[in-house]
Structures
1.
Amino acid sequence: MKTNLPNNNLKQFLSIETLALIAIALGVILRIINLGSREFWYDEVLSLLLSTSKNSLYKTPGDLPVVLSQYTSLLNLPNEGSIRDFLLTIVDLIKSLLRGEPHPPIFFLSQHFWLRLFGNSEAGMRSLNTLFSIGAIAGSYGLGKFVLGHRGGLLFTALLALNPFYLFHSLNVRMYAPLVLWVILSTWALLHLIAQQNSDISPSRRSQLLWNGLLIISIAAGLMTFYLYAYWIIVLGVLVLYLDRRHWFQHGLRLGAGVLITTPWILWGTIKQLRNADLDRFGKAQSTSPPLLRHLQDLANTLGTDILIGDWATSLDPIVITLAGCLVILAFVSFSIHLWKQDEKRNLGIVLILGIVPILLALCVDIASKKFTLGFGFGRTMIIILPGCLLLIALWVEKAIAKQWRTLIASGLLLIYLTISIGDLSLRNRTVFRSIAELVAKDVNQPTLIAMNSKAWGHVNRLAYYIPTDSSVMLLSQTPAKLATSLEQVLKEKPEKYFRVLWLDSEYPLWSKLKTQAEVEIEQQKIQQILSSQFQLKATQNLAGTMNLDKFTAKLYTHSPGT
């Protein structure tokens, strides 16, 4: 008698369920093994500075060199000898957030306590967000199963686990990874409560408390993590009107309870933090395109970055990002039409509300306010759309694709995500300031002056973090227009003080850029002449990371013989 057992085993191994489980495992593994594989980028080291509670002690470098290790001490927790000292540190942290940070406190408070447990290493700092992202992956199965069933839930979870954009932010010391967790939990809880409200079977009191508590806590946590989570509360309200308009008042009370918890901070802290928000930067023109066209481009760029290319957006030409976004838009329109024809109108409505309504809401606010927040930050301000958009993809595969093609298409989508994610983590250089530290370490005992044409505090603190404190290093951090003059004065007054000078020429010194390339070249020539008169050029290194902020030319000079 013939048997098909081998074929059956092969089909079972190649099932969507098995492929999804493998993808989920790979997503978790990629997060764990890459915790310390790349250096802190600009915003991450600022998160570290804020989390230590020493932000208020930071002073912008002046016209004279300073000991670099003074800044290194700001990236460590203060010395404490009592509970009173501990409480004073927390008070200082809150005050520093009120004075100089536009974001809510819960992310920085959680990082502060995590810092106490695991230190300020890259892996230690990133591990908390990685845990939040793994929690989001686990919660996504519950949400996906509720909407799509077991297999669809696994596919949705796998897409989230390997999504390049979310994988990057899972390893980023900023507030975006936990934001996705609060989005998933609040949506899952609300859908459960809507189902309970319309069920013929009365839910247990324990179940009601669980889902109500989860909804209220996740809403409060979301608002206290990122203020634009307010868009998501509106989305949840739209979802209520779509699915359970009869009981809108009960659901509204639940949503309102989550907001109410945050009211003390909103009335006290948020009003103060508004003074720290540089809202003018969202209105500055970054292209010559008409405003409406730019708004639409921001919409496409956000979708292309969040759904397809991830952090690669920081290195790609803007037109490539826009084309990726247009591809995503065409795919989503096609998916929606296909699902509509398959009579999946209810679920299609749910996923479109979760994935498309928030970005359209943000677009309308931008157009009305004449701001461009949607395109700011390479898509991260709209990371809340990610679960809904990935649910749309999973719904299309699960409900609109013929059975014989379903596994092939699902595996293809997961393979695309896996390839983009691994490429991002392995092919792109993220060791700029480690390379600078290696240059300094070549002769660590010799007095060294670092002359940098940037006062940007992210540049200063990254130098302080990566260059060992036992190095004899002074820092002259000056604007591009003044560095040559300051350097000449320093070397004239104390010509024998420094054995080496490391000139760091930033291509993007942030707020103090020179207006023309001609001005840049003139200042570079001045510095080169000043250094060549007393030193010999020993090494030149062009350094580039994944962003303009990471582009430096490092030139190491040592004393000429006989000088």
2.
Amino acid sequence: MPNRLAHETSPYLLQHADNPVDWFPWSQEAFAEARRRDVPVLLSVGYSSCHWCHVMAHESFEDDDSAAYLNAHFVPVKVDREERPDVDAVYMEAVQAATGHGGWPMTVFLTPDAEPFYFGTYFPPQPRHGMPSFRQILEGVQAAWADRRGEVADVAGRIVRELSSRSEALSSGGGQPPGEEELHAALLALTREYDTSYGGFGGAPKFPPSMVLEFLLRHHARTGSEGALQMAQDTCERMARGGIYDQLGGGFARYSVDRTWTVPHFEKMLYDNALLCRVYAHLWRSTGSDLARRVALETADFMVRELRTPEGGFASALDADSPAFEGEDAATGKHVEGAYYAWTPEQLRAVLGEEDAVLAAGHFGVTEEGTFEKGASVLQLPGDGLADAARAESIRQRLLAARDTRPRPGRDDKVVTAWNGLAVAALAETGAYFDRPDLTEAALDAADLIVRVHMDPAGRLTRTSRDGTAGDNSGVLEDYADTAEGFLALSAVTGEGVWTEFAGLLLDTVLRHFAGGEGDLYDTPDDGEVLIRRPQDPTDNAVPSGWSAAAGALMSYAALTGDSRHRTAAERALGVVKVLGPRAPRFIGWGLAAAEAALDGPREVAVVGPQDDPGTAALHRTALLGTAPGAVVAVGGPGEEDDGVPLLRDRPLVDGRPAAYVCRNFTCDAPTPDPTVLAGKVGAREG
């Protein structure tokens, strides 16, 4: 019989609706039940594309004996970390502080007052690899609760106090934004951590450094640093040639398990692909790289083809696992990580025939030994590829068609506001750069869904929706910041000032409900659910921190509107980057990118001319292709300053011709009708 999760909208929670565990969703009802029964709460946090979450669910949560013990001695609560990032952030910080590491599934034991006192991640069904079994953990915690309640209370109280003191220390990070010295120090620190052999930073596992790459491209554009550009170029090429990139269908996996980008963890997340699509588009804008152009477009097409929902939004993720389609695993119905993506030489021969299979093996790095499991290889582009481009494309298309007949990975089809904001920005810009109006239309559809379903008239956001129905969860800071970023990019591309107005509404909500007293920003609103502490983190994780993303969006909005209040808020929020940038640049890349914009101006470009005039289109395209960090672009006809973008105010035509006005640091150049002159002012690449 289904449990309480059957009434939820999260695909991850619904995966547990038939467990024998008597799950509660995160709710006051769960903690009231724990107080009534005088038992602890077991909090289990995961997400739908998490491999080890599925493993623990199968081993323990689907086991009748484990479930019976859990139900008798605890109130079990299941949380989707993507739906409730605030809950996840608070308890993940406690796990990391107590154990020195974290991850998912996250397993935390709480008092009925939601105070944590024991932590872990994955626990096996039997003791192994030095880990106790899940049942041993349950029995140990139950015994401590029954016999040593005072110790439990002391531990819980101490942890809550420590978390509170961390928040107070962070609040003092406000101040002035970083200057030239701090940004140069951040670049030097990145250089020391750079992997000169394979690109990227650090060792295995290796994650795509999307936000750091944006900083490096902006730093190069502002300073001419060849070292910054080289790190960005080499990393992007290594990733694009590696197994982390889907060589058949486009799009990136979550991370590489090795430092060489060879074998990925195969889940594909919307946020990674949105961020990387934009990075490669910006790399092309800076260098004209054919590889960057191809990867940006293939990644955009992957998002539209594989993740777009019927309502026009974008689903969260594709699973790493999929049903096995041959061998013993297929006979048992087992789900296998990477089964959809990996190839053996025999499988190549079955699809391509002997001659083309040999060519494909060399082209994609498929060997008899394999680079993955059971003699299978993850496709890569280790060399220059086939000289016959048409034959290479024919091979790719035939393999892609054959792969499409394999059982597909599952899809988490909830629509997350923040990640859709990132997708809007990426698709709008990629569509504009490469003359793909279909991509811009996809961005418009996703933005429209956010406004219709996720946003109320007062500018408050809901975190998720599914099947066009908003979830029962409030938006967090990253939802407001990333959506504002997407709307501002969409306004620049389309010339529709309403998107700037929507962005302003969201950013006003940020200042009203998320801002602290010293320039700091909180992850949750001041009128949101009260947790054991109000989460607050300026550092990037898999996505830009809400703090840094808000600073960047506030900076852009201020440049478009001339609003000093938003500019001041952006500069104060960037104070934390001045502190953390030189020390930990890998974890505050988006903040460093926003700081580059602040140091450059950012430049303000107003293009004025009739919509159907080729001169207007040429100036608009040149402005969009400018590499000046964080440059803002507004386009409209003369007299359209009331269309939500004050930057267009008092901008007449020049001798009856369309013109571009460029301002920077409160000083404006003479307007120009010449795209070549404009290119020099905004750093647009010739040709």
